[in-house]
TrEMBL record:
Keyword terms: Membrane, Transmembrane, Transmembrane helix
Ranges annotated as spanning the membrane: 12-32, 55-76
Superkingdom classification of source: Bacteria
Protein's UniProt name: DUF4235 domain-containing protein
This protein's record includes keyword Transmembrane: yes
Length: 93
C-alpha cells in the first residue's frame, strides 16, 4: 500500500519537476554564457563544428558547460524535492 502512495506522489511531482527542469536549464544556460564570456575573453562559446576554433577551446567549453549544468540540475532537483517535502510532508521519490 505504501508503494502505491509513493507512486502517486511521483506522478504528482512530475509536472513540478518538468517546470523546475526547464527553469533550471534556462538558468544554467545563462550561467554558462556568463562564465564563458569571463574565461573566453568575451567571445561566445565555440561550436564543436566551428573550424576557426581550437580543440582546447571546444573541449574547455564542453567541460565547463557540463559542470555548470550538472550542478544547477542537482541544485534544482534537490531544492524542488525539499520544497515538496515542506508542503506535503513527504519526499517525492
Amino acid at each position: 500500500m505504501a508503494k502505491v502512495k509513493q507512486r502517486k506522489m511521483s506522478l504528482g511531482y512530475r509536472p513540478v519537476g518538468m517546470v523546475l527542469g526547464i527553469a533550471g536549464g534556462m538558468l544554467a544556460g545563462a550561467a554558462f554564457d556568463r562564465a564563458w564570456r569571463a574565461v573566453g575573453n568575451g567571445r561566445e562559446a565555440p561550436d564543436p563544428l566551428d573550424d576557426e576554433r581550437q580543440w582546447y577551446e571546444v573541449l574547455a567549453a564542453a567541460a565547463l558547460h557540463g559542470a555548470i549544468f550538472s550542478v544547477v540540475k542537482a541544485a534544482v532537483d534537490r531544492g524542488g524535492a525539499e520544497g515538496v517535502r515542506r508542503i506535503t510532508g513527504r519526499w517525492p521519490a
